[in-house]
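note to self — DONT lose this again. spent like an hour looking for the file last time. sequence + predicted structure for the chain T wanted, 467 res
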Amino acid sequence: MSATVHEPRPAPPPGRTAPLAEWRPEDPGFWEHTGARIARRNLVHSVLCEHIGFAVWSLWSVLVLLLGPEYHIDPAGKFLLTAVPTAVGSVLRLPYTFAVAKFGGRTWTVVSALLLLVPTVLAGLVLTPGVSYGTLLAVAATAGVGGGNFASSMANINAFYPQRLKGWALGVNAGGGNLGVPAVQLLGLLVMATAGAGHPRLLLLVYLPLIVLAALGAALRMDNLPAAPGEGRAFATAARDVHTWAVSALYIGTFGSFIGFGFAFGQVLQVQFHERFDTPVKAACLTFLGPLLGSLTRPVGGLLADRWGGARVTLWTFAAMAAGAAGVLTASRQHSLGLFLAAFIALFVLSGVGNGSTYKMIPAVHRARADAAIRAGADPVATERTAHRSISALIGLAGAVGAFGGVLVNIAFRQAFLTAHNGDAAYLVFLIYYAFCLFLTWFAYLRSVPAAPEDPATPEASDASRR
């Protein structure tokens, strides 16, 4: 009886049709010869899709400037129109993070990119004078799908890069995505300057083909990583971890400020300095500048955190943001446009730096915990898998909570302008919160206490996070 010989089946091509057979970014040889190239390709297409996601999420920061008197919406109603997509986007960040583990990074990137067609098409259909305010609120809410993209994109890219490069990679991914905010505002300015404020559909027509192209690029060029089971348990564990809520509170101060100010800045200028910004074009000329600089400085925050530690950079960032908020409050009381713009732009820049440094703290803490467990005798493979799930879960939770900070910013502005016709009360609240975040960063991560493996500010944890 002769033995049956089974010829080995060729493995399916990696990526597009099947998950990669293996992924070992912490292995120097694997990273140099295979991993870096694949990770870079996925990062490029992740940035493109996330960029357009942020643009769609931010559409209403431009569209509210185009809603003239014929729409019969007061400033408080416009602030609510920008708060609604922010709120929906923050909630969607949780299921979007789950979706990466469930369906794969490439698969979910394609789906989430195509979902951006929904708010874009709906806005084009309803934006006519006479439309009800309720309809506008409902359509604005659908733009929240663009906010969900951030969480899935960050969780996906986090898995592609080794620990020593996570600060840079997450900073580039987030910064490139954040650039969607000033991009849509610049395009809105171009539409207003060329066609007039009465043609908002032209802005939407620009994004429809871009959405399709981004989804196509993700389908053809991105990869799914091997499945990581246990994501639901990781979320439950992260929700019980005090570090999760500490980082989330800090992220409210950084990303919440960035996205909240990005949505509201144009309206704030029009209401507080109406004599200087009496047309949408005048406001739009400056609206994009803060989000642009804040987006560009986000990778800088990641790089600084890679070098000096996320907690140290975050501490000094909040100290500077508190000073910036004090400058905005002073300028508002003195009705000084120059000081107001300078201080507000500084807040955008600093929020970008803080976004990068705060996100660096997430993998640093869990990396240090994993290294401590391995030194104590834990199984390295299982420990690494648990650390990866914990990091992804915390990215989703912190991203969701931080995005909700943008809702709070818009509500604070709405209430301040309703009651006092200026934003002074809101600026004072921002200053107090930044001071609280400064204290929280010091208390939780930088106090002079015996070095603990979970403290990302200590030399032990910092060194571990770079290995």
